[in-house]
Amino acid sequence: GRREGGAASPGSAEAEDGNWELDAALRAAAASQGLTAHPGWLSKCRQLHSAAMARHAVAVIGGAGTGKTCATDTLAAALSALSQAAGGRPVTVSRMAPKAVAGPDLFGVRDARSGEWIPGVVANMWAASNAAAGPSDSWLVLDGPIDPRWVEDLNSAMDDTRTLTLSNGERLPMQPTTRLLLEAGDMANASPATVSRAGIVFFGRLSLGWEPVLEAWLAHQPFERATHFRAMFRRYVVGDRRQLAAVSSSPSPAAFAPAAATQPQPGAMATGEWRARHEREHGVDPGLPGDATLLGTAAMPARLAAAAATAAENGGCLF
Questions:
Q1: Which candidate, 145, 152, 307, 301, places its Cα nearest to that of 223?
Q2: Please, what is the angle between helix 223-232 and helix 211-218, to 10°?
Q3: What is the pTM of this model?
């Protein structure tokens, strides 16, 4: 990999590709957009950069909520920052949804009465990208399900000729600094010719997960509220996931039966006793945060205190 200064621990993702400046720019761009620099998601951003360096056509594939669009925008912002720091120009991103446009209006159509050729949306975006071609990169992003009725027309632009051929015979070349990105949920409707021409970056469900989304939301909350909600999520969401995993691995439901202790009155159980009973009955890791400092009624808002009392009344279950 190319060494560009900075520091990274051996074996880390930064050390693998050797581009520490890009990693720092990605983290800064994510922070400026209010996003969490999740390691798995940052790895996908670096993969997208590598694919765009190797291919002029890249397919960004993954389900909704896996961070595809944010990765594209964050990578563009990071590369723009690096380019401008070196005296260059920012990356321009032109995005459109092919399904929002009728087929003839996508690339162009000839008027039946006048015989005049009317350029389509993609053709106009392509021409604008060529007109603005220069030292900066230009990305054309087609965001939406892949349909063979229009993606096949891009095969000539995705191969080595790098030329978009329209039905009127016009040929629009792709500049060396232009990249074509297909952002979709899958490539089930793409032909082998299309798949073989594109670099593919897949965003799986585990690339992002729900934790970074939670942390991004908590970052905009008051400190006290963020502290309480983080403790609650780690206790009841992460804890319940561990309990479900234990249930699936053990056929005996008796291991999770409530203790035979007498049900306390609401608010009568001390915080430490309530926590010990909850951990005994539900198998929550005692190392998780949530001691009396976080769960004590004096430090909790009124609604969370009521929830804790309800939890004690229901035998330790908040939901």
A1: 301
A2: 160
A3: 0.67
